[in-house]
Design goal:
The chain is of the alpha/beta class. The chain has twelve helices and 14 strands. Keywords: Signal.
């Protein structure tokens, strides 16, 4: 079965801490525009087949007998989207946006490059030049340089531990530290400090038991939250646990400072090789705060949400078949999320051929029918009003074939 739909969207937001953890309005000058774009990158490759699950396909639960979502209405069931696709129940906070047709998904989308390396795939998605490692800048940096109006560092903002690849380039950009980063190692994880505290408290008659229990609990939480491989795949991006608070601050800043136009936020914790879970578990625990944060962002933006597009994307998808560890491995195609006041939402867009064995890429994962650059280019052209010549500067290696759906428009 091949399904093709047509979609519409608009652009989006960000947050700016000033001073010691305080939040204030930036006074920096920037080209005034009420059209915004926020990009949320899920580092580690989120499992799009459980975010927007093809519960109407008989092959789905055959491939995922323990982590697959049940049909809508059943215990642990997906939330019905269109009778065929179902939304992960941990994303229930996004249902009002779906019902209001302000949220849509583009399934079987992603990078045409076949790599399953987190680092290469993230680099290609941030440079928007799949297969090319020599691109000197990121596409959001090229985008802000191509937009009309005076340039200012506050016009292009990133949130994370370091300036991300997507913001690097000749145009000015500001990178801000995460305010609500989660699951960081504490002081006692330093060997010398731990040894000193062990000597003080390990055999203490009064505090020894409490100290040992506390350290054991900390180790258990840290081990459960992050494997070494997952930490590497996240590139320092925090878990989404604190995203709702950051989203609220972001929305407040955007309402008060119209100069901020483009924003990038990265969230980690999506490399679910083991113990992924189905309706509950590891993936669900990541999706719940992500969905809550996106819902908070939409609500707190108020009328500005009508001129905002939020795009959620990840470097690649995951295997259609669950592995022996109750997880999924590196895949290919995925689902992009698009939300905004003028999005033609309430639908799942893109070509779709199901998850039967013969329809899978290399017999293991979703193919990529929609190049992620087609979605981004349409938002840039239709919403941010870039002409063809400037569009070529932002996306220099765009394929000849464009996606068969519109992203922005009446």
């Amino acid at each position: 079965m091949r399904r093709r739909h047509f979609l519409n969207a608009v652009g989006a937001g960000l947050l700016l801490p000033v001073g010691r953890g305080a939040w204030a309005v930036s006074a920096a000058a920037a080209g005034p525009t009420n059209r915004k774009l926020v990009v949320v990158m899920l580092r580690g490759a989120v499992d799009g087949l459980n975010v927007v699950a093809p519960v109407g396909d008989e092959n789905y639960l055959r491939l995922r007998p323990t982590i697959g979502l049940a049909a809508p209405g059943m215990e642990g069931g997906a939330l019905d989207l269109d009778g065929y696709f179902g939304l992960h129940p941990a994303l229930a906070s996004l249902q009002p946006l779906w019902a209001a047709r302000k949220l849509a998904f583009v399934h079987a989308s992603g990078s045409p490059d076949a790599t399953r390396s987190h680092f290469d795939a993230q680099d290609y998605m941030e440079s928007a030049t799949p297969g090319r490692k020599d691109t000197p800048d990121g596409w959001m940096n090229r985008l802000v340089a191509a937009l009309p109006g005076p340039q200012s560092p506050s016009r292009l903002l990133g949130i994370g531990p370091v300036l991300p690849r997507i913001l690097s380039g000749q145009a000015a950009a500001v990178n801000l530290p995460n305010v609500a980063a989660a699951a960081r190692a504490d002081l006692l994880d330093r060997p010398a400090v731990k040894a000193a505290f062990d000597e003080l408290y390990a055999n203490h008659p009064r505090f020894g038991r409490a100290y040992a229990d506390g350290r054991a609990a900390h180790r258990e939480v840290m081990d459960a939250l992050e494997s070494r491989e997952m930490l590497a795949a996240d590139r320092g991006a925090p878990l989404p646990n604190g995203f709702p608070d950051d989203a609220a601050r972001l929305a407040g800043l955007m309402r008060n400072d119209p100069k901020i136009q483009l924003a990038f936020v990265a969230l980690g914790g999506w490399d679910t090789h083991a113990n992924q879970g189905g309706a509950t578990g590891q993936l669900a625990n990541r999706l719940a705060p992500l969905g809550q944060g996106l819902a908070v962002l939409a609500e707190r933006l108020g009328p500005l949400f009508d001129d905002t597009v939020v795009v959620v994307m990840s470097e690649f998808g995951r295997t259609a078949r669950e592995n022996g560890n109750g997880g999924t491995d590196h895949g290919h195609g995925n689902a992009m999320w698009v939300m905004g006041g003028k999005v033609r939402g309430g639908r799942v867009y893109g070509d779709w051929e199901g998850v039967g064995d013969a329809k899978l890429n290399e017999g293991r994962d979703l193919p990529v029918f929609t190049d992620f650059r087609s979605v981004l280019a349409q938002i840039s052209e239709e919403h941010l009003m870039l002409g063809d010549k400037r569009l070529e500067q932002v996306f220099p290696a765009m394929p000849q074939k464009r996606a068969g759906f519109r992203i922005v428009g009446a």
